[in-house]
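Next comes this protein.

***
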Amino acid sequence: MMVPKLVFWQEIFGKTAEVMLKLSSMKPTILQRAGVSLAIALTLSTGFAAAPARETAPLSPAASLPPSLRFRILYDRAAPAVVGIRCTNGEDLYFGSGSIIDPAGLVLTSITVVPAGSKDIQIFVRGGASMGAEILKTVPEKEFSLLRLRAKADGGPPNSGQATFPHLKLGDSVEVQIGEASFTLGNAFNSIDHDDQVSLASGIVSGSYTLPAFRAMARYAGPILETSAAVNDGMDGGPLLNGRGEIIGILSLNFSTNRWLGTAVPIHLIKPLLNDYQARFSDRDQAREIYLGLEVTEGGIADPAGSSSRPLWISQVYRGGPARQAGLRDGHLLRAVNGEPVATLAAFSELLGKVQPGSRVRLRIAPILETGGAGSAEKGQQVEVQKEGEKTEDLEREIAIPAWGRF
C-alpha cells in the first residue's frame, strides 16, 4: 500500500459510520424485523513469542484441541515466514506484507506493496532483523510481485537452495469451500517492524466470486476468495491461510461494495507463473492426454539423505482425482515411475508423456521423514516419524494409479 493513499480506509470507515448513523435513527422494532445486526471486529495483538520453527509445515491439529491452542500452533508455525515490506517508487513510499515461500528466500507479495521499478526494498522479519531484496517478477494482472532476499539466514549461503529460510507451503485454492477456516497474517499498521509482532486474525472463507473492477489501489479484477478474517492497513500482499497453514490466497486491496469484507487473489492463479523460479508440475495447469490429479515439486525441502540435491516430492494430491482415490497423499518423496528412477522434474515429465489414458501408472514413493529438531521437511498430513536406525529406503512402497483420459 502506498502511504499517501489512505483514503481507501477512510472511505470504508466513513461508509460504516453512515450506515450506523442511519440504523441508530430507526425504531428497535424495525431493526428486529429486518434482522439487522452490527458487529465490530477487534483485531487483537498476540504478545507471546513463537517457537523457533524453521519449516512451516502444513498443520492438521487434533480436533480435540481447543480453538485457542490450535490458533497458537498455527501462529507459531506460520509467523516466522510472514514479513513486513517497505520500499520506494519514485517519490512515493510503499509498505505492506509478504510471505517467504521457498527456503532459498523467495518472497511473494502484491504489486500494491512492491510495484515494478521499486527501489530500496527492505524486508522485516520477526525478531528485529531486516534485509534487502531484489525484484524477480511483477505480474500486474494477477497483482503479485516475486522477490528474492539478498541476505543469508542461519549462517548458510544466500540463495543456495538449502533449507535456510522458514517458509510457507502453497496450498490448493481450487478445492476451498465456503465455511472453511481461514487466517490472515501480516504487517498490520507496520506491526512487524514497529512492534515485532505478526498480526493474526481468524475467520472463515465467506465467499468466492468475481470482482469485475478495480477499487482503491488494487490492480486485480477477477475471481477472488473472500474472508471474514480482518484485513487491516498494511496487510495487503500477506497470506490468506487455510486451517493447515497453507497459502490459499494473496491478500488484495480490492473489495465488493456490497459485502465490505477482505479478499484475496486465489493462489492457483499465481502458481503457474512461478514455475521459472520454483520447479513444479501440476496436471491441473499443464495440458496432457492423461490426468493423475497431483502436483510434484523439485526442491523446496531438505534432502533426507543429507545431500545438496533437490528432492522430487509430491506436494499436492487433489480431491476426487485418481491419485487420491488410489490412496496417495501429499508429503511423499517420488523415487520412480513405472520402475524407472526419477530425480528431476524433467525426467518425471518425460516418463509421464509415455503413459496412455486407461493404463496404470506405478509410482514408487517414500514418506518425507521427520527426524526431530526444527523440522527438516515441508510435511503433509501423512508424514511419518523416522525411528532410530530406520532408513528412508526401508519405507519405500509402490502405488498404482489409473491414468484418466482428458475429455
Remarks:
- The mean pLDDT is 78.
- The CA atoms of residues 331 and 387 lie 18 Å apart.
